[in-house]
Fold each of these.
Amino acid sequence: MVEQVFTLFVLIFIFFSLLKDVLSPSVSFLIGLAVLVASGIISVDEAFVGFSNQNLVIIGSLFVLARALQSTVNIAAISKKMFGEPNSRRKSLLRIMVPVSASSAFVNNTPVVAMLINPIINWSKERNVSASRFLIPLSYAAIFGGALTLIGTSTNLVVSGLLSDYGYEPFSFFELTKIGLPLAVIGLTTIVILGPKLIPERKLADLDEAEIEKGFTIDVSPQKTILSKTVNDAGLRHLKDVFLAEITRANGDVIAPVSPETQIKKGDTLRFSGNAESLAKLAKRQNLKPIEDKHIAKLNNRRNIYIESVVGHNKSIAGKTLAEISFRSKYQAAVLAIFRSGEKIKGSLGNVELKPGDSLLLVTDEGFEGRWQDRSDFLFLRQIGSDSMGSGISNTNFYFVLLSMLLLAVFQVPLAIIIMLGALMTIILKINTTSQAKNAIDFELLIMIAAAIGVARAVDMSGLAASASTLIIEYFGVFGVIGLLFGVILATSILTELVTNNAAALLVFPIAISTAVSAGADPRVFAMAIAIAASLSFISPLGYQTNTMVYSAGGYKFSDFFRLGIILNIITTISLVTIVGVFFL
């Protein structure tokens, strides 16, 4: 009993560390694992069994393959054919979501969403429709696609690896499809029916009464050529996709709204709002000088380029100000503007505490993307005014890699070997450089998974899993095995909204297996259920990485996800319990 209580306290520590973002996920699980070893609950060999799990090789190799795909496929060209004409909003939703779900079944859904955000924004702009109507469905479709195959999301591989550690056969490649496909059909149908009603249009008009699709703000000082002129005479009215929001005088007085007859004076700070492309052009004007120009001058770049980036969950940047992390020296980039969904950025940019999902407009050098594209500091990056795509040779080489992997699968070569060889071939054929391949791998995630497997082993060996399963049986067993399945899925769904999907699956897995064994049910079915339930995160923009990415890009408010997400969560949870209960138990 003492071991169970002690293990429970370790789990509580890990949970609150993840919830409050006190420590990174990998460090949280490693500390928990170390404490469990030191207390004698598990041996050193048992604690580190996760580090020899073959699924770590598969997950790491998939990151490399995803990096190769992102650098070779011309998404902009494909998207134009895919999206079609918006003669029907529901038809357009289908044309976007179905291919995205299919793609996410075979490629990590994060790069899929990253590559499609800007094509959707451009497509919407050309047709005078709001991109916000489509970006939440984009993320949700990618989530459903991840549940279709073993490699659709790292969570499926994590649960498969745990199954193997518990003495069961790991998932086959399409085993989850039998549950994931009908669930995806139900989910996408729900989005098509309810999405147009529940997903609002979001523009900067919600904040500033100006029709600009994305509200970056940039502070500039007027040069001598326009001093003493009116705003109208200086040519600062009716700029394309840019709005002069306010003027701050040298004495601190703020003029807002700004009249066309307002005179520009020495010492003024002009704050403009607009989209990334337009503000990048504004920063190049001769009669305006960005306030951050002193930082730009220190970059010593031969050629400055403009990058739009989205802040990730990495604690090295999230929760800190630009000044605290010495942003310019660390990233060799200067921040010109910050956009935060639903808020105006006030005061000096250097004192703004960055949050996950914030969009930054950067001026930097041409090597910035190569250095940071595959790091967790930023969820995604794009160069303003440039649609990157691979050469014809690299495209051909990548298709050769895919064909080779399919041939190996036909001859029943183990999946870990196939994926690893595919990743190595991208380096040999120069689709990825060695540095790009290394940077593409999320080592933070791999360490977390390996450590969490050891923690899961401790939960089982201490008897805590058996005790927890007894409680689930006591409260949900009255409804039979389906009631127990619902209890496990409900616990997973709640946790995945609070912590990462992988962490949710890892924490629930030993309890789910113990519950299934105690009830005489198939543990494999319970494992499939929690693998899928852990990825079904729709309520919060911060619950799943793709949600965070579109949160900023679409200019959404937090509640925009909840409105459709809560309904989608209820429907998918009921559907998941029904599908698994009727056809697999």
Amino acid sequence: MNKKIVIFCAISIGLGLFIGYLIFKSPKETSNHIEAHSDHNEQWTCSMHPQIVRDEPGDCPICGMDLIPVEGGSNGLSQEQFRLTENAIALANIQTTVVGNTQRDGNNGISISGKIAANEKAIAVQASYFDGRIEQLNANYEGQNINKGQLLATIYSPELVATQQELITAASLKESQPRLYEAVRNKLKLWKLSDAQIQSIESSEKVRDKFPVYATVSGTVTEVIAVEGDYVKRGQPIIKVSNLGTVWAEFDVYERQLSQFKKGQNIAITANAYPDQTFKGVVSFIDPVLNTATRTTSIRVVLTNNNALFKPGMFVNGIVETKSDIEHVSKLLVPASSVMWTGKRSLVYVKIKPDEPIFEMKEVVLGVKNGDNVEVLSGLQPGEEIVTNGTFTVDAAAQLQGKKSMMNKKDENNVMDATPKTEMSRAFQKSFLEALSSYFEFKNAFVDSNVEEVSNFGKTLLSNFNDTDITSLSKSEKSYFDNCKKILGEMLKTTNIDTRRKYFVNFNKNMVELAMLIEGTNQAIYVQKCPMADGNKGAIWLSESKEVKNPYYGDLMLNCGEVIETIK
């Protein structure tokens, strides 16, 4: 019995060792195989510049830091896909929607804003018909309603007194001098005296020293031009009268929206004063001239104003049903909140798997914005699930994981265009940093739209460049520096601020490239970008302050832009 027990224990121990070998040795070999495969395909990135991706370890070409392995290389995801935790999704309130499921509602159509204005076709000027002094002005405040034939003013006119005396004399000679008599009467008629007034003067043989001026139209006084006691000349305006039976609703339309408008389009109008009412109108006029400052043009709708509901200056909103809105079934619409604009690029984040939080960035080509939605011409397919809320949070996660993002555009080799870092001489860096002080004053002069200061600081900056030793620069860096000098010199030959801003766009492209190579600055330098500048292509500049002050538009769009890079 003891022998059997010993044999049984030996067999059990041997079997246990064999099973343990199978359990622990096999995964190790598999792990080694996977690890070797992973090492073979491992990629490396920079913790400070995640746009840099390499197939082998080394130094970052921008900051010189050691590259680190890209995480998640063996998790079954493609190079540009990344995963978020459920906790991160909940905290950031990230929401998604399936493309093609956007429902049309009352907010669709192009929304535009405008004001009520007086109908200029119904504006009349009431003028004096003879020289004289205004003795009494009955229409003497704006907003006063007047009727046709109503007494507006009484005027003393020495010229009219003399002509009345001529009439009395000519009336006594009308049998012998009929032509003289008719000439005097016609003269008074040209001064808007009625036949009854002329006959009264002739029959009474009394000269009147004050004559009335009557309204020739009905309406509302919109401007009082003269006051009592003023001397007026023949034809000089006294008041302006506007007939507010019809008014204009004038709306500003952005340049990119113009293709969606035409005469005869229906428009639904609401006024802040009457939020529960909708007024129907038709586009009657589209201004042929574009406002170059605001990049907008004006469209006009004529509204009937029988009950005097509309007051000139009143704010109104309009919804215009466009062709693309009517044919929305054949268009791919996505919520505008899902799209990130970077000037040249429009980006969305797609959720790759419906049951897993895996995302990937895609570039899309956009069409016209309709209400809260925007048309996608290419880049997405119906049925794809995109991020509609928390898009910028997802983009930040992509940047941290070294993936393509809004601030990080990679080329075919997955490497962002970057100027290799070279060993610059301390003398050049010192001179360039001194030039930056002049640059900031130069840039701020553009912000203030001060032509004189732009010239003065531009000359100072050019002088700084001329005194800078560039022998330590590489060929490409010298090219950037020479471009700065050349563009600045050409800019200073012009005097128009808008023309100079066009030069400033290209100047900054080269200036930012040089600034990115400088190390050891005493303060942070911010690279800022306005997506609307340079004809909506986007333009960059350097700033000593994180606060955005746009040098390309000044007061028109002072805070338009964002910080896209910080040079420390």
Amino acid sequence: MKEYQKAISAVMQQSPVEHNKTIPEALQEVHPKQLFDEMPAMLEDCRAIQEQVLEEILLLAQGSAYAREHQLEGVRTLEQWRNAAQISTYDDYRPYIEAEMDGREKQLYAGKTALFIATTGSTGRVKYFLESNAGNAAKQNIMTVRGLYMSELLPVTLDMNAKNLTISNYAPVASRDDGKLVVRASGQTARNMRKKTGTMNLLPVEFWESPGISARDRDYMMGVYTLAEVRFSKVFCNNVIHFGRILDRIVLEGGQMIEDIRTGRFSVSLTPEVRERLAFTLPPNPARADALQAVYDRKNCLITCPDDIAEIWPQFSMISCWLSSTVGRDAREVLRRLPSYIKCFDMGYGASESKLNIPTKLASATGVAAPFSCFYEFLPLDGGKPLCMWEVEAGKHYELLITTYSGLYRYNMQDIVRVDGFIGNTPNMIFCGKSGEYLLKDNQKIYGYQFADLIYQAERKYHVEFDIMQVAVENGEYSYVLESKQSVDYAAVKKDLDTWSRQLYGIESGQIYVMKHTYKNSLFDGLTREDRGACGIKLPVVLQRIPAQEQIAQIIK
């Protein structure tokens, strides 16, 4: 019997009354290398694992306010689940989460809440989620296995002398009166990584935990820290466009950054308390400043091409970031600025609610679902009942539903995923876009990802890349919003796009808005705040209004 099977079997043999160890917590006790080595067996065994995970989650739900009020009391098997469970969204959980945060326990599950997660996500509105110990362990298990796949392909991740630039959101952890933490979802993974990797990180903990620093000043300071470290080797960042924006600051303000490195003092506005707290994190380094100045003096700029990056950071060799959907387009834009030898590994598909897949290959936006993490269901876009992971078809698109150890039950992520084949019996998934982004035409939904697919087809035909691709919808009509740094025959592109969309959907665009090169950056500027950088932002595909006139360079009818 495999070690994962022994761990799960021991958990499932506990009596309901004495159920004090969960599957995710038991799997944490399996040596990580053993868990990694047994992944092929787990992916073959996905149905059995998924049924055991669902059975345990339903056991832990018994006695909760949600289970009582949603007819889940006594539901234990998959068949019972399929007959009883209703598809849910965040608003269904809001009153229970608020009650739990007010101190009324056992709202979504019978166990204790370990911490609260705050997120703005793609909506821009703050939402809170509960996190149980089991739910937190489930996320950590995925991160452990992801890390092992990454290190197998990129051994530099284990090099203790190769420094990490880990970019996350900035809000410090807050503590409630009862001692429970409230954390930013997008920063929690980075905090856990920083704890594990310690001195491998070139950005100090004090930098992340210091309040009152604007997003713009933080980006500048990250540029200084990174320039100061010749051993900089790796970037970890959800949306790597944030690293691109830091490179932009180095291009524009590299001379001043060199002076900051020479003197050991940041030339930004900081409170005396924060400046004192950070003083030891940037010691004066005249030797590094001299080396950078020599690069700067040749061209009056630190970075003009990929070769300059290779000279400044000779050990820089890998990036881990999101590679799917709109963020994949952002990653492509940044990667073409870098030396071609830099390798890329997807950060993995996930959200505040759960971590959802495990990338297994370099430069691929696809990852395999983790059958030991949560219970997955797939709602066909063309109608029908939710399907289990062993029932889906390769190449099909679905809306993803999850049931988690932290009290979400048949929760609609409102994400569209495509099944990109299988590993064993477990589907590979790629995130395609949000199901709420669509054009409604004659009772037909044309989703944002479908418009994006048309643009990718045009890119392949014309050998161009669009750094941003959006669709502006107004009065039931749509127009493309495109930005590219290359020379593009937009009239020919529009003709082909309209031909293809007529054939597929019976529609055609009004016009193409060709955007100025400042447009995309202005969108990120408008969405960043002191506690939220570009690293956590996904730009929408479907817009409900036409962009501002001053950002439009040309209109192609």
Amino acid sequence: MVNLGKKIWKRGDLFIWLTGAGLSLSLIMTMALVLAIVVNAMGTFWPGEIQVLQLNDGSQVLGVQVGREQIPNYGSPDEQKEVYRVQIKKANRDIYDSDFVWVDESKIKLSQTPEVVVAVARREWGNFFGYVKEVLDGDQVIAQGTEKSLRVVQDLLPDITAKNKKIEHIEKKEIGAINHKLERVRLKLKELSLKGITKGPKVDLLNQKIPELQSQYNALEEKLAKIRSSQTGKIILQTVEGREKILPLYQVLDIYNPNSFSLVDKFGYFFKGINDFFWDDPREANTEGGVFPAIYGTALMVMIMSLMATPLGVLAAFYLREYAKQGTLVSIVRIAVNNLAGVPSIVFGVFGVGFFIYIIGGSIDQLFFPEALPTPTFGTGGILWASLTMALLTVPVVIVSTEEGLAAVPKGIREASLALGATQFETTWRVVLPAVMPSILTGLILAMARAAGEVAPLMITGVVKLAPSLPIDGLWPFIHLERKFMHLGFHIYDVGFQSPNVDAARPMVFATTLLLILMVILLNMAAIYLRNRLHKQLTASAV
């Protein structure tokens, strides 16, 4: 038996089993984490049935069951028994002051699923669960009762949505463009004033533009007022206790009866919810609506970071490996680069604020935007400075990965190129660089994954809870790198840890987390595909 144990130890079978167990445990933990996120995220968009709970005290609770847990029992072992409670999303936050309530199962006398009930998605105050008393157009009643009113409102909803989109377009696009032009005129007048020019053709030409722009602004305001005055519809809702809520129809985003849904209807609503989550703007302190601005900001920040970090890291690695004389100084630089990879990210954020924002951004404002001061243009947080900060954070990864790739290129290939008459630059550019490109892309993959998930540096260099406009739009100069932006990682932090309504925010946290994971995977898959394709081309050309 002892000899058998020694043979197993010498053959390394035990170590093989240990490494296999470690790999299996890592995979199980990763899959369990991802599965938990997926289940909780997908449940956000699935329409649950609305139930009415009759309690022993005669009261009623209407809502969707979203959770169930065991109530701890601290009595003697003989008295202990399993007791559970359920969490009900009763919505109607403006009436009940809370979205959720816990109900002990022992207090539930009867649970029913009414055939006719409505769920109303609103622009404010979240969802409403209950019944419809009547629908009015001005003071005229056009429908009564939940069933008939539901059909009427669903017929009116496309026109209501079209008017809301038209109002939003006028406010954000047309009026926004006029305000942008007025601000440019104001700044140009101030610029001329700083130069001592207060009269003349330039000043007169600018002053002539203001009444014209103001006239366009007033016309759009009248147009908005006309559209709003046509929105006279309203709906009178009732809770299960009979309390009434008057809601203007322009506040209704959607209305439906989940208890009447077939399985096909539920899947249709499920995919509609996912689509809205991708493309809509956030509402209700980011706990509802979509995350499109955060997706946009995350993708743009990662792209700008990649454009900054990759060339910088590759050039540094080529110099250290190909041109610098190997010695103590180069070794110290390599140690410093490796240590930079372990510096806490918030330190890079503090550096970004001090160097990029205050020094470089402040200098840019003094030189090119003095008319805008004391309001800073580049001397405050923005997507450019956040991207540069993240580039510094991730550039050590690119340097190390590129250097490892350069070290793997055989010295004979360089010597053969030089022997054929190529210069060192030509050898580096046409022979070494293509051969090391897969390693460069490996570093880029790791850099993108880290940049997409980092939050701490962004919190002080440009990310915000809600950005009023995107960094790229239709207003001159079209690309506004000085603007603040939204980020999926910060969105998760803000909703998950800063929201006063934790239960309402939790579904959004899981959904955004899953989206961020998918986004990182897609970015990595694109870079991996490009790396493998380059590797095949280089292998084929070498043959």
